[in-house]
Write a structure and sequence with these properties.
Largest sheet: 8 strands, mixed
Strand content: 25-35%
Number of helices: 4
Shape: globular
Distance between the termini: 11 Å
Oligomer: single chain
Helix content: 25-40%
Number of strands: 11
Length: 214
């Protein structure tokens, strides 16, 4: 498993530049020119809309949106959020749901190690914190993927210490009856991307090493 760091604060990565790079790495992995690769980064602030995004879920304030070829709905990327794009060849038969579950398992493991209990929610991808005295059920990690030529693209976004105001101008992930949160908010301390990065890397190795096709 090869890891590539594209940029972190203060060197945030433009979404379209990262998408171009992701597609080139995907091409090379498909061709056998590169091993399975995970791109890790922090994006400059942007909204991206997956294939199932509906018109009323887009920003109401005119914020630009980039339409992308992953599954899922609209989501935000930006400073304080750790984004990962695992570009890995899946075994046969290709199990897309299994890949999503592995990424959920990874983020749940990261949150648990840092002291936040999370779970899956039936019918919804990503990683969630239960409703409690602090607020309603809330999403801490999002997933949206695509598989082409048996190799995955796009991936996950884990909220570390980002501004959660992004959820005020869209319906994030198409979900109207739950909130969003971050590791910093749940732990009442500043949990930076730099702190979370090695934990995410270790858990990615745990969930992906045995799952990829070689």
């Amino acid at each position: 498993m090869r890891f590539e760091h594209l940029g972190f604060a203060p060197d945030y990565v433009d979404y379209l530049q990262a998408w171009d790079h992701q597609r080139e790495v995907h091409r090379q992995v498909v061709a056998g020119e590169l091993p399975d690769t995970v791109l890790l980064l922090e994006h400059a602030a942007v909204y991206t809309a997956g294939k199932r995004t509906e018109a009323h879920e887009r920003p109401l304030d005119g914020t630009p949106v980039i339409d992308v070829d992953r599954g899922g709905k609209i989501t935000w990327h930006g400073p304080g959020q750790l984004v990962g794009y695992p570009i890995v060849r899946l075994g046969q038969p290709v199990d897309v749901v299994g890949h999503v579950r592995r990424l959920e398992d990874m983020m749940m493991g990261v949150c648990r190690e840092l002291g936040v209990q999370t779970r899956r929610v039936e019918g919804r991808s990503g990683v969630w914190v239960d409703a409690d005295e602090r607020g309603p059920e809330r999403k801490i990690g999002a997933i949206g993927i695509r598989v082409s030529h048996d190799v995955t693209m796009h991936g996950f976004a884990l909220n570390c210490d980002n501004d959660l105001g992004y959820a005020d101008v869209v319906i994030p992930c198409g979900i109207t009856d739950a909130g969003v949160t971050s590791l910093s908010k749940e732990l009442d301390r500043d949990v930076t991307v730099a702190e979370v990065l090695p934990v995410v890397t270790a858990h990615l190795e745990r969930v992906l090493e045995g799952a990829a096709a070689h």
